[in-house]
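Shipment paperwork, digital attachment
Item: protein structure file
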Amino acid sequence: MVAKEWISAIVLLQLCYTGCGLCGKVLVWPCDMSHWLNLKIVLEELTERGHEVTVLVSPESFIIDYSKASTLKFEVVPMPPNREKAEKTLNDFLDVATNVMPTLSVWQSAMKLQEFFLQVTENLKLLCESVIYNQSLMKKLQETKYDVMVIDPVVPCGELIAELLTVPFVYTLRVSIGNTVEKYCGKLPVPLSYVPVALAGLTDRMTFLQRVKNVMFFILSNFWIPQMDTQVWNQFYSEALDYVGKQKFVLIRSIGNFEFLVHTYLILSFVGGLLCKPEMEEFVQSSGERWCWWFSLGSMVKNLTDEKPISLPQPLYKGKKPATLGANTQLYDWIPQNDLLGKTEGKKNCTAE
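Attachment content:
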């Protein structure tokens, strides 16, 4: 009898230390390339905590591999695949951005960007139509009864899907052109006098002419580009659907210490360092007071031929990790530069190329 009382007491004591929680259903409207690499870390953590995560993915995706086994569920949008066209658009943009635009004036660069955006917008418009006009897919999403939607605002239409499904949504992004999303949705003030517009290639120490350039980029990103978007997306969004500002939260995939000093509101939060694993940090810190270098081509360059690395004076390796690789060298498919610097004590001794 005494033994049973002790067993009951132990079980009751364990129940006192047991917590409870509710798991939800999450629908994701992602972007490709490095955007996905950052977001995937968050989504996998959600699944580990018991949440059900479903990702709407285009069949033309470059990095999102929905064919592999994963804890995430992938809902492939039924649309006519045109992978060759998507790859050509990306390669043309990389060529123009690296070889042509640096030699052009601000307005000439803007015209080149406009050509690229019009091509991409047509592809995104087709993706949006393939979702919202697909009655069987929308019915399936509505019957699932999602609790929240995670949206990368770089890809339009996510807010519209959230409205049609009547679910709240959260924004997650690294940066938007001209900081438009951060400003209008995250209430982030961007004083043009000392805060450079995103992607303008300026610092917070600007000359008079550089500030004029900053204002020109602001006009381009806040008035010209939105006008182009309005012409394309008017058939989907009406004046009654004022989606800007309806998000519950804005997550910025960056470290606040690396951003320009501005006041932030509770609706906006910096969540940088997600990709910087402990083993990567330990490897970089192992250099001590000595310098460390890394060479990164980003997540978009996929057409590097064998001739290009050979022409570089520095050693560059692409492919399977060789068995004879030294202990002071590591190979990665993609390196989060700011995340690594922000979490490394020896960040002053690290150089990115």
